[in-house]
Amino acid sequence: xxxxxxxxxxxxxxxxxxxxxxxxxxxxxxxxxxxxxxxxxxxxxxxxxxxxxxxxxxxxxxxxxxxxxxxxxxxxxxxxxxxxxxxxxxxxxxxxxxxxxxxxxxxxxxxxxxxxxxxxxxxxxxxxxxxxxxxxxxxxxxxxxxxxxxxxxxxxxxxxxxxxxxxxxxxxxxxxxxxxxxxxxxxxxxxxxxxxxxxxxxxxxxxxxxxxxxxxxxxxxxxxxxxxxxxxxxxxxxxxxxxxxxxxxxxxxxxxxxxxxxxxx
Length: 265
Ligand SMILES: [Zn+2]
Description:
single chain; Metallo-beta-lactamase, Chain A; 9-stranded mixed sheet; 7 helices; binds zinc ion
């Protein structure tokens, strides 16, 4: 995806699967009927895992989110599963080595977004400055799933505080609810703009159904207000958006016609 002189590319790490009506707790099979395009034939919903490589501004090579890392396991009482591990190989296919990365930005600090920040006690991207919102650092510093990773990268970790510029051409937009410091990453170049939604939206179906929410939001009410405001802002604009869990991690646009929203890739 080209956004002016910026180029944003998905870097796939793996996949997570869960039954759609379990992940979206209050939904039914009937409600999913018009949204089959987001489901696998067995009713499971597939969430990709990974990050986005953003290049084009000077010598900056920016990775936004760092995937699940080399691990796999079960979720939702064994009804779902996840498997990561491919992010570094996929960076290599883009001719990017870990030492080439200058900045790693985290949309939030859940374990499936910081997975490759460190590996077995070592920093994976040795020349990078790692960055996140200060609210997430404060919230997750003692979280048992990520505290080890955060301890390894702490000397290289800088924080931002709410909305504002983070890197050349890249701004943070505060989007709390999923986590306290949950952030939408806004890429801009001239009049062109694109967004990476973090986990404000897990599946494009949430751009179409304001009332649907995944099970992972720490503050569900705030997350819903944030998501609804985003949907209103995006509706009918030409802004390409993507998120780390979207199918294929591909960019799309939220178009509006005859009173209905449509997700178009
Ligand atoms: Zn996630």
